[in-house]
Amino acid sequence: MTYSEQCAIVTREIYEKFDASHDFDHILRVLQNAHEIMEGMDGVNRTVVELAVYLHDVDDPKYAEVTDASAAAILKELAVPQDVAEYVLAAIESVSFSGGNSKEINSLEGAVVRDADRLDAIGAIGIARTFAYGGAKGRKLYDPTESIRSGMSEHDYRAKKTASVTHFHEKLFLLKDLMITERGKQLAEVRHQFMKQFIRQMEIETGQSLSPQ
């Protein structure tokens, strides 16, 4: 059994404790995105990418209360060679948006994993995940009186319980222009336009502008 296959078994049990926005189905979609992005790319270590995908949400602060697992500990448990484990952890560090304060990408693997994860944050699936997470956390659907924040610290980004539609303006609509890989950029454009149309339709149905101030 490969390291990736072993990691899938271990992480499935962890992600089953998360809500639908970050469950194991999310991991499988990111893995599918990663495989599509890697098609035709040279010099990418697929094992590093796959392990990083499986582990990238294990340490997510949003779910600290439901798991005490860590990516580093799992890699050690699976006896992944130290040099491979270091590449995996470096790729994971580059994934988080954190209010726009992303870590610098220093590898092809990190670029693939970040783009693959961000693709799952936009488009039809991104919309579903946003409202699934908002519902799990008791957030309003929309609130046009909220201000759009930018240049936030990671603490400020996570601290305020903004409405789900506000999240589109603070993060989701920004992701298209933050893609790194060529394939990621192509896929993001289609998903971005779908989200814009969705918000326009919400404005028609509510009879008001849903763009925060």
Automatic annotation (TrEMBL):
Name all HD/PDEase domain ranges.
Answer: 19-131
Show the Pfam families listed in the entry: HD
- Lineage, top-rank taxon, reads Bacteria
UniProt xrefs under SMART domains: HDc
- Show the stretches that span the lipid bilayer: none
Q: Which organism's genome codes for this protein?
A: Sporosarcina gallistercoris
Q: What is the protein name for this chain?
A: HD domain-containing protein
Q: Which Gene3D superfamilies match?
A: 1.10.3210.50
